[in-house]
Design goal:
alpha+beta; six-stranded antiparallel beta sheet; 26 strands; disordered N terminus
Length: 536
């Protein structure tokens, strides 16, 4: 009986991790290239990949001169694995790759462990289920304060993938040579020319042990059984980007090109015209979102899925692009995404992001109370910056995102006496702690005010750059400790106030590009919304 139990445990362990040895897929790829077969490599990632010559060019071509080597750089700056699950079909699988290098450790820093593992695992499993699965290598680039890469290491180990940790290599190099960070990096995460040369050398060095060895047979090309997924939630294995540029809709027009480098990313957009008109998009699936243009001259829009979510997106915060899921883990059926531009300034949409459609049933999902009228007319009343008092700054010794300062209880959270100062009379609705303290990327400040209320439920809009804890009458009501788009994107929170005076205290942790906070209150129209609406 004991031997039988040991056998069962061994079988269970086999199916919990991928069969074979780490890098077997890479050894098989190199063996084909050495034999002279044509091969294709694709690098998927963010801006660090975008500037990185796809990591293995020209090393791969020089190493296998008999092979016709095609290398594609699919890096797009400012994107992580949460867009990668939708990009992978168009930007990777369509190229029929033999090798895929994935670099997302830095840009996934704002994701929860659960989401990061799920998105990475979704891409790995989708690639491994292809009729001719490619070899997969994870590239973990470095950040000044350390990249959050344990999630990538976990996924790589589970599927026996080669994982190249450039954070460790760079940290060791700086320590042993005494080279300052600025000699190799142009900012906190992006290498300069010298830094990239070191990255390329270290990647080649890490790949070399998997090259064909005399007398050592290459692993069999038969795919090994995939292990049980790490993720508790279903993997996202059919994400796609549906171009909107060719759609015909009243009040919207096609723009075939953009006068920017990311024209190659979008290949045209669907732009709102004057006067602004709503746009309805329908899709089967469980995940629904948009990939859109950001421009200083652009407008803003609100969006809702099935009338049960409410989101506000400002497209004028910078030049570039943004993406957001407005419906997550939806019932697998047909859904309606309603988009309402808010002004004559154009909104430009590139792609509809959809996943889960392969198992979706027919029939429109039940619709909630959010309609076009509410999206168009919803308004906030800002609490003026001059209505607050503030205290700080506190902490600031580290730059982690967020640093331990966010959890440290400073004087306003204890019984210690706190010096509260009046916010100087200024126009606008946002407290700029960077201006008040001279700090922009570290530490925390506190703000407090009193709101008079008739009592009852209310919707608050929290604007912050970047992390916030908000107490109402001494009770923690809001914690923003993940990505939320910064101060330009109010995070909506439904809460309850008591009749009379209500004390509001906020703790604000600085962001990488600012240090600000503001609070918005709903007007009468918003009070018609039911509790079933999810504000994003």
């Amino acid at each position: 009986m004991r031997l039988f139990l040991l056998f069962l445990l061994a079988v269970f362990a086999f199916f919990q991790t991928a069969a074979g040895n780490t890098g077997d897929d890479l050894r098989a790829f190199f063996a084909r290239a050495a034999a002279g077969e044509p091969v294709t490599a694709v690098a998927l990632g963010g801006s660090i990949t975008q500037g990185g010559r796809a990591w293995v060019d020209p090393w791969l071509k020089e190493t296998f001169p008999k092979s016709r080597v095609s290398i594609f750089n699919a890096g797009i700056s400012g994107t992580g694995s949460h867009l990668g699950i939708f990009r992978i079909g168009r930007d990777v699988i369509a190229l029929q790759p033999d090798l895929v290098l994935i670099e997302y450790a830095v840009n996934d820093g704002g994701l929860s462990d659960e989401d990061a593992v799920r998105y990475l695992e979704s891409m790995v499993v989708r690639l491994k289920r292809l009729p001719r699965p490619p070899a997969i290598v994870f590239i973990e680039t470095a950040a000044r304060t350390g990249s959050i890469r344990h999630r990538h290491e976990k996924v790589a180990a589970h599927y026996n993938l080669v994982n190249i940790d450039l954070q460790v290599r760079l940290d060791e190099y700086l320590k042993t040579t005494g080279t300052p960070w600025e000699k190799l990096m142009s900012d906190d995460v992006h290498p300069n020319a010298a830094g990239y040369r070191l990255y390329w050398d270290w990647i080649a060095e890490a790949l070399t042990p998997y090259l064909p060895q005399d007398g050592v047979p290459a692993p069999a090309p038969t795919p090994a059984p995939l292990p049980k997924p790490l993720s508790a939630k279903p993997l996202i294995l059919d994400g796609k980007m549906i171009p909107l540029s060719g759609l015909s809709a009243p009040g919207w027009k096609e723009e075939s090109t953009l006068s920017t480098w990311y024209d190659r990313v979008f290949l045209g957009t669907l732009a709102s015209s004057r006067p602004p008109a709503p746009l309805e998009l329908h899709a089967h699936g469980t995940e629904l979102g948009l990939f859109y243009i950001l421009d200083r001259t652009a407008g803003s829009f609100r969006a809702s899925v099935d009338g049960r979510t409410f989101a506000h997106v400002n497209c004028d915060i910078r030049n570039g692009y943004g993406y957001q899921l407005f419906g997550k883990e939806l019932e697998p059926r047909l859904h309606k995404l309603l988009i309402r531009p808010l002004s004559d300034q154009p909104v430009k949409l590139g792609y509809l992001l959809v996943a889960g459609d392969t198992a979706a049933a027919a029939g429109l999902a039940p619709q909630g109370p959010v309609n076009d009228e509410l999206l168009a007319n919803f308004k906030w009343t800002p609490v003026p910056a001059s209505g607050w008092q503030w205290a700080g700054p506190f902490g600031g010794e580290t730059l982690a995102w967020p640093s331990p300062d966010f959890q440290t209880r400073f004087a306003p959270e204890t019984t210690e006496e706190t010096e509260w100062k009046a916010v100087p009379p200024t126009e606008g609705e946002t407290i700029d702690f960077g201006k008040l303290t001279g700090r922009h990327d570290r530490g925390v400040c506190y703000a407090r005010t009193t709101l008079k209320s008739k009592g009852g439920k209310i919707l608050l809009g929290v604007k912050a750059d970047y992390f916030v804890k908000l107490w109402i009458n001494g009770k923690l009501a809001v914690t923003l400790d993940g990505p939320h788009g910064g101060a330009s994107h109010p995070v909506c929170v439904r809460t309850e106030l008591k009749p009379g005076d209500n004390e509001i205290v906020a703790k604000i942790h600085s962001g990488s590009q600012g240090f600000s906070f503001g609070l918005l209150l709903e007007d009468d129209l918003a009070q018609t919304l039911s509790d079933e609406v999810v504000f994003q």
